[in-house]
């Protein structure tokens, strides 16, 4: 078997940044915005942090996608001939699309909050009574989405571990034999 260190590193490091950044943002950044003393600055502080993270996140996602395509090409024979690899690859593809959609939707919500300016808020994702209704709705949606992204990308990390296990020589042999004789 040929080594695919560069594309594997791109895949894994990109996914780690996507997962880790979204989880840190949900726990750290959005949570910390609630301790800003001026309630009219809380949303701006959270948005400022997310805007600083945005290019790094985009780079991580891009690295992950390039690495994923590279690994798919390098392992296309296993995907086609080893039982279980095609199914887990399809699930990874669907989850990647879901993570991209959740990230894009969260970005759109974040832009809406950024454009709101200085409005009263309990935190970056928690409105208070005086928060304008449209801003409060976006915050409530983002409060859910902040957990969707790390949940989906975390699941992708688990499936990446499964793919690593499926590459063990004994697993490849068993998978090819099972697929050959169960057609």
From TrEMBL:
UniProt entry keywords in alphabetical sequence: Membrane, Transmembrane, Transmembrane helix
Record carries keyword Transmembrane: yes
Transmembrane segments: 55-74
Source species, domain of life: Bacteria
Presence of the UniProt keyword Transmembrane in the record: yes
Name used for this protein in its record: ABC-type Mn/Zn transport systems, ATPase component
Organism: Streptosporangium longisporum
